[in-house]
Structures are given as structure tokens and as C-alpha cells.
Amino acid sequence: MNSHRHGDGGVTGVPGAGEDVVCREPADPETRVRGGVFDRRAFLVAGMGSLLASCGWDGGDALKPAMQAAAGFNDQVSGLLFSDAKLARKYGPAQRSLSFPNYFISGMTPQLDQPEAWRLEVGGMVRSPLSMTLDEIRSLSRLTYTVKHHCVEGWSAIATWTGTPLRAIAEHAGVAPGARYVRFDSFDSGYYNGWDIASAMHPETIMAWGFNDRELMADHGAPLRLYAPHKLGYKLTKYVTRITFTSDRPGGYWEDQGYPWFGGI
């Protein structure tokens, strides 16, 4: 990745709070060899991190086919290992990281001129398209967990997230059986992501509106952001405005530049 305000994911091996995070060699012990065996996250992160996230250099046109092949292989591995029955390890509030860097692609922290006018639009292959306020989203359901967040660059942090399970929103809208993918759009300079429907309906995939026992703030994606502990940070779209259920696989801001599409942990 480049040196935009990179973060939203870690204090292990990154600067202190408030600093812009730039690409560096992964310092997280989980990305290293343990007992002579390269673990899954090490394999996925180190492979793509070294090739794709080398401090802003994308390898040029000559290496793009190799990068796309590596991304495709990582997607295959991640997809095979994914399970909707597998839940993330949980931590206590006392184990939360002291800082949690932010990340966005806009020149400044994205903020709404009229927050009260914001709505989450839910459409595509649904029975009942929705236009929901934050209070309406909160009224559906609530889930809180304290988990470790992982960045593709190899660092991580622990934080508490509160939100509404995406599956509750999907049930409210009535998603059609033929919907295989979900697209998430934002007001962060066109940042977007595409997910497979199984990952989106995982019980720990939430539309988060709370962070560390307080309201989600603009630096971490307010008023609403996508969160799931089974995905790398760049898959977790912030500043969400629209969710679209579709039969066609969407791309993504970084995925369109060669990053793995599945982006699983």
C-alpha cells in the first residue's frame, strides 16, 4: 500500500497514536516462523505484504501478472480455510491496545456536512430496499466483542467494537437466494469493497457504530463502518453509505490494484 493514513489496525510494530502509519517490515510476532512452521497469517500477510505493500511501490506493469496470481492463490487458501462456525478469540477490556491508528484515503478525515441527514441505503437483490437511520440500525440487534484487528502490513491491535450484525440487516431487507456477493460503498473518496455472501453473513460480521465503549468517531469511520475479525483491515470499509447485494462479484479500492479479494485471516 502507499503512505496514505495507513492504520485502522495496529500498534504492534507501528508508531504511537496520532502518527501517520507508513509501510514497514512487519513486526508482529504472528507473521514470523513459529517452531519451524510458517503459520497461515504469516503466509498470507508476508507473501502479499512483501510483494504488494512495499512502501508504495506496486512493482510496475511487469510484475502485475505475478501479483495478481499471488493474490488469486491467497484468495483460494483463505476461502478454503474460512468457516462461518469459526469465531475469533476474545479478549478482556484490560487487554485493549493503548492506541489504534486511523486510516482513510481522503486528504482529510472524512466527515459529513449534515450528519443528521445520513442514511444507510440497502439495495440490489433484496425484497425490500431500505433507507435506515443509525437509530433504526441499532434497534435491530447489538453485538459487542473485544478482538484483535490485523493489518495487511503485519501489525495488529486489540479493541472493542459494538454494532449490528450484518445478517440482521440482510434479514430485514429480505435478501434474494441468488445474491452471492455484497458491495460496500462509502463517502471516503470512493473507497469500496466487495465480499462473498458467506463472509458477510458470518455471525461476527457487524456494521459497527461503537468503539471502545463509546460512540464511533470520524477517525475510525463514523457514523457506520463494516467490521469483522476474520478479515484484514483493508476489507473493512468505513464511512459506509450503501450496501448492495448482487450476483456479480464487486471489486474494491485496493483489490482493483492487485490486493487479494478475499482478504481473510
Description:
With 265 residues, this protein is of the alpha+beta class. It has a single domain, classed as Oxidoreductase, molybdopterin-binding domain (Sulfite Oxidase, Chain A, domain 2), CATH 3.90.420.10. It is built from five helices and twelve strands. The strands form three sheets. The chain has a five-stranded mixed β-sheet. The N terminus is likely disordered.
List the helices and strands and how they pair.
Blueprint: E1 33-34, E2 37-38, H1 40-52, H2 60-81, E3 120-124, E4 130-132, H3 134-140, E5 143-150, E6 156-165, H4 166-173, E7 181-186, E8 192-196, H5 197-200, E9 206-211, E10 214-215, E11 225-227, E12 240-246
Parallel strand pairs: 3-12
Antiparallel strand pairs: 1-2, 3-4, 5-6, 6-9, 7-8, 7-12, 9-10, 9-11
Helix pairs in contact: 1-2
Give a quick precis of the structure.
Helices cover 20% and strands 22% of the residues. It is an alpha+beta fold.
